[in-house]
């Protein structure tokens, strides 16, 4: 304690016109520095209250927290909307997928049915063509047979008929035509 009082006493004995120097005695300089700092703080900080500074800081922190919570709430709301939209889009995608598969199956069945109908029509056309060609061939054969029979009959008649038989046949045919004319009149 004596050192502390000695340091204050030594302040009184300082020369005023001396040079400026650095005092390395910690015990002597520390109380002086503290008293100067406290004096400056009291003189200049009369209007500033530490509790006011702390209250202002607390209000800023609370405002920051409130703003963060509002931003978080907005972000959560946007996230929920995005999730709802995602679920809706996933449902629509599933519906498109199911409808697409159903549409593909329907188109496949329609194509198969159309192919069967086309094949049936082609089969009918083929059968009609075959039937037509058969009828045509039958008619051609009939005409040839008839022509050959007619030629054979004419040949037989020409070889068997003489003039007299020929004249009698013509007279009979004329008589037949004459009687047919009287019946029709």
Automatic annotation (TrEMBL):
Coiled coil: none annotated. The keyword S-adenosyl-L-methionine does not apply. CDD domains: ATP-synt_Fo_b (cd06503). GO terms for molecular function: proton-transporting ATP synthase activity, rotational mechanism. One of its GO terms (cellular component) is chloroplast thylakoid membrane. It holds the Pfam family ATP-synt_B. It is found in: Membrane; Plastid, Chloroplast thylakoid membrane. It comes from the Eukaryota. InterPro entries: ATP_synth_b/b'su_bac/chlpt (IPR002146). The chain crosses the membrane at residues 32-54. Keywords: ATP synthesis, CF(0), Chloroplast, Hydrogen ion transport, Ion transport, Membrane, Plastid, Thylakoid, Transmembrane, Transmembrane helix, Transport. The keyword Signal does not apply. It is a single-pass membrane protein. F-type ATPases have 2 components, F(1) - the catalytic core - and F(0) - the membrane proton channel. F(1) has five subunits: alpha(3), beta(3), gamma(1), delta(1), epsilon(1). F(0) has four main subunits: a(1), b(1), b'(1) and c(10-14). The alpha and beta chains form an alternating ring which encloses part of the gamma chain. F(1) is attached to F(0) by a central stalk formed by the gamma and epsilon chains, while a peripheral stalk is formed by the delta, b and b' chains. In plastids the F-type ATPase is also known as CF(1)CF(0). PANTHER family: ATP SYNTHASE SUBUNIT B, CHLOROPLASTIC. Belongs to the ATPase B chain family. F(1)F(0) ATP synthase produces ATP from ADP in the presence of a proton or sodium gradient. F-type ATPases consist of two structural domains, F(1) containing the extramembraneous catalytic core and F(0) containing the membrane proton channel, linked together by a central stalk and a peripheral stalk. During catalysis, ATP synthesis in the catalytic domain of F(1) is coupled via a rotary mechanism of the central stalk subunits to proton translocation. Component of the F(0) channel, it forms part of the peripheral stalk, linking F(1) to F(0). This is ATP synthase subunit b, chloroplastic. The gene is atpF.
């Amino acid at each position: 304690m004596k050192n502390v009082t000695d340091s204050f006493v030594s302040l009184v004995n300082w020369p005023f016109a001396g040079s400026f120097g650095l005092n390395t005695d910690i015990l002597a300089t520390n109380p002086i520095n503290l008293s100067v700092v406290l004096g400056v703080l009291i003189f200049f900080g009369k209007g500033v209250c530490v509790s006011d500074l702390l209250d202002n800081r607390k209000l800023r922190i609370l405002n920051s927290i409130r703003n963060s919570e509002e931003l978080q709430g907005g972000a959560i709301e946007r996230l929920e909307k995005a999730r709802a939209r995602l679920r809706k889009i996933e449902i629509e995608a599933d519906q498109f997928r199911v409808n697409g598969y159903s549409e593909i199956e329907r188109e496949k069945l329609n194509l198969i049915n159309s192919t069967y109908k086309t094949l049936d029509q082609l089969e009918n056309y083929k059968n009609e063509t075959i039937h037509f060609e058969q009828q045509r061939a039958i008619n051609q054969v009939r005409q040839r047979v008839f022509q050959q029979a007619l030629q054979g009959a004419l040949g037989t008649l020409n070889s068997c008929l003489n003039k007299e038989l020929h004249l009698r046949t013509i007279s009979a045919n004329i008589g037949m035509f004459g009687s047919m004319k009287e019946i029709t009149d």
